[in-house]
Amino acid sequence: MSVPLFVVDAFTTSAFHGNPASVCVLGSDSRADESWMQSVASEMNHSETAFVQPLDAGWSLRWFTPVVEVELCGHATLASAHVLFETGAVEPGTAITFVTQRRGDLHARRRGEAIELDFPVSQVEPAVAPAGLVEGLGATPRSIAANDDFVVAELAGEHDVRSLDPDLSQLRRIGRRGVIATAAGGGSEADFVSRYWAPNAGIVDDPVTGSAHCALAPYWAAKLGRTELTGLQVSRREGRVATRLEGDRVVLGGHAVTVLRGELLPIP
Fold first, then answer.
1. 135 classed as catalytic
2. CATH entry 3.10.310.10 includes domain 125-246
3. Which residues have CB under 8 Å from 10's CB, separation 6+?
């Protein structure tokens, strides 16, 4: 049986901007295994491919890069919610519960034309520069924070973040899920800007990274004294993420645009 397949640009209102994600909608009786999902993700070659499947209560959700399954992905979750709302699989006024294997239940709901995601906060703490960070970025951060998932390197300004040309072989040495470079917003009508690399997961200069904003939201909220902020990821495609802290959760808001509808054919 064929599998409905969508390509969605997330955290943007315009096609060919934001972060593209593939979304596969599996049937309730599907027995798709991990090796097949990984092969599909490798074939699609987006930073993440999401697989959603209806459950008795909610939807199962998994994410794969072209080389590995990941614990959490914001833009592909936004893309998945967009597909379920757009196709009528979920009524627009209904909240979606995504059941994940590694990060518990995540929630998505419409707010006007945007979609909001309820994710866990990823708090970072002040840290020393891990080996390979300065060499990898080709710049000396003004401050560094980290947790088990991310290293956050704050630079002096937006131009410094935009102009980075990192050495990915050095960033691979750091041993975290990803490296975030960030600075206070300049002339981009955003409170802060960022870029993100996860070379060990096959992700190079990710267009817009929802999960990174789970760390950026509390980081910049503490610096700016506000719980509602807008981030701009200044990759080539760019995309905006609205963030709102609510205790140990962060609400990520954004738009999405479908650019392709098709089907995966059965493999003999």
1. no
2. yes
3. 18, 19, 20, 21, 75, 76, 78, 79, 82, 208, 210, 239, 254, 256
CATH 3.10.310.10 fits 3-120+253-264, yes or no: yes
Q: Do 3-120+253-264 and 125-246 share a fold?
A: yes
The number of C-alpha atoms within 13 Å of 18 and in the hemisphere containing its C-beta is 25
Catalytic residue among 34, 43, 48, 135: 48
Task: Compute the distance between CA of residue 58 and CA of residue 95 in angstroms, rounded to an integer.
Answer: 9
Q: Determine the 3-state secondary structure of 19 from DSSP.
A: strand
Whether the Cβ atoms of residue 68 and residue 199 lie closer than 8 Å to each other: no
50: closest CA among 28, 71, 79, 27? 79
pLDDT in tens, 50-107: 999 999 999 999 999 999 999 999 999 999 999 999 999 999 899 999 999 888 999 9
The number of beta carbons lying within 10 Å of the beta carbon of residue 248 is 9
12 token code pair: 């943007």
Say if residues 131 and 137 touch (Cβ distance below 8 Å): no
Question: pLDDT exceeding 90 applies to what percent of the chain?
Answer: 91
pLDDT (tens digit per residue) in 158-201: 999 999 999 999 999 998 999 999 999 976 689 999 999 999 98
Residue-wise pLDDT tens digits, 17-63: 999 999 999 999 998 999 999 999 999 999 999 999 999 999 999 99
Domain map (residue ranges) of the chain = 3-120+253-264, 125-246
Which residue, chain included where needed, has tokens 């990984």? 38
Model pTM greater than 0.85?
A: yes
